[in-house]
Amino acid sequence: MTSVKEFVIEEPATPERTGRGRFAFTDDYSVFDWGKMPDPIPGKGASLCAMGAANFELLEAEGVPTHYRGVVSEGEVVTLDEADAPPREMAIDLSRVPDLPHEGRTYDYTVFHREAGENYVVPLEIVFRNTVPVGSSLRGRADPSDFDLEFDDWPDEAVDLPEAVVEFSTKFEESDRYLSREEADRIAGAADIETLEETARTVNRLVTERADDAGLEHEDGKIECIYVDGEVRVADVVGTFDENRFSYDGQQVSKEVVRQYHKREQPEWVAAVDEAKQRAKAEDVADWRELCEREPEPLPEGVVGAMSDLYCGGANAYLGRDLFDAPPLAEAVERVRDL
User: Fold this and answer.
1) What is the rounded distance in angstroms from the CA atom of residue 60 to the CA atom of residue 79?
2) Whole-number pLDDT of residue 3
3) Nearest CA to 69 among 84, 14, 9, 60?
4) What b-and-e string marks burial along 38-73, b requiring 16 or more CB atoms within 10 Å of the CB?
């Protein structure tokens, strides 16, 4: 199980073939890599499932291979258009995840790929950025001059990049870290790093075009992939309000809203998370959570309701379909502006 969706195996993958399974999306959310937070957000899981399905179907129509098989409606695997109600389950092909042994924060990818063969989940996240919004980790790792921007320091507002930037980070390590291209190439194994980047840029383009049609700005996001018989296929979920950052009329329409809320309203917990991550790095401890001395507090009821409307109203706008009982996106956005 991940922190926000359950992973159901129906037929396990083998070294020779993919398996079959499902994602069951929950209404849980996670920020700062914490895992399951105290409050569910009603409708969130179904909104992510529907947006992810729409994007997978868009990718398949463009000839981009994926692990998507359809959404589950009344026990049947169907297309999103054939689902009469918001779906909460997605049918997928499964690949293998070999063990990744480690000592402290040192991981042995040689062992991983020795077992991986030609059918495995690529142990990378491929991140693409069209803008550098407030809160983006890129602000702490690069200067504006690195992207030919005409100012010395990052301003207190989103910055458009001249062209999309693609980065690579780890997927299966306890604390994710960004990688040089050379290290990412090594960790990817048999999966070609150029193909991974090209696939990410294609996904970015298609999601950006879909967002434009809905009046949304697509700021950044990521993909994960599987490698099967020499082919890179897009996996996990793409183009949702959890995997990607979108904005509408200058307001975030994504998990970033609640992330920034926690920074303002629970700064002690956020600081404790940062401190635990730094301690774990200094002490060569893989799981930083065991070092964190605070727990997050529940959200106020009004914040939960506003986030529910944002997820569901935003999904309706992105899909171009009133699949959810939710206010229009403009109304949902106004409700969260002052959170």
Assistant:
1) 12
2) 67
3) 60
4) ebbbebbbbbbbbbbbbbbbbbeeeebbbbbebbbb
Q: For residue 175, which amino acid is it?
A: S
Rounded Cα distance, 42 and 232, in Å: 34
Q: Which helix (H) or strand (E) holds 73?
A: strand 68-73
**Does domain 5-336 correspond to CATH entry 1.10.3720.10?**
no
Mean pLDDT, range 189-199, rounded to an integer:
97
Q: What percent of the chain has pLDDT over 70?
A: 99
Q: Mention every residue, 6+ apart, whose C-beta is less than 8 A from residue 67.
A: 18, 92, 93, 94, 95, 226, 233, 234, 235
Collapsing DSSP states into helix, strand and coil, what is residue 276? helix
For the entire predicted model, the pTM comes to 0.91
* Residues 284-302 as b or e (16 or more Cβ within 10 Å = b): ebeebeebbeeebeebeee
**The pair of three-digit structure tokens given for residue 13, joined into one six-digit string:** 């993958």
Residue 331 class from Cβ within 10 Å (0-12 exposed, 13-18 middle, 19+ buried)?
exposed
DSSP 8-state assignment for residue 289: G
Residues 6 or more apart whose Cβ sits within 8 Å of residue 85? 73
Compute φ and ψ for 231, nearest 5 degrees.
Answer: -120, 135
Every domain of the chain and the residues it spans: 5-336
Q: Is 288 left (phi over 0), alpha (psi -120 to 50) or beta?
A: alpha
Residue-level length of the chain: 339
- Alpha-carbon span 9 to 300, nearest angstrom: 36
Task: Let me know if 85 is exposed, middle or buried by CB neighbors in 10 A (0-12, 13-18, 19+).
Answer: exposed
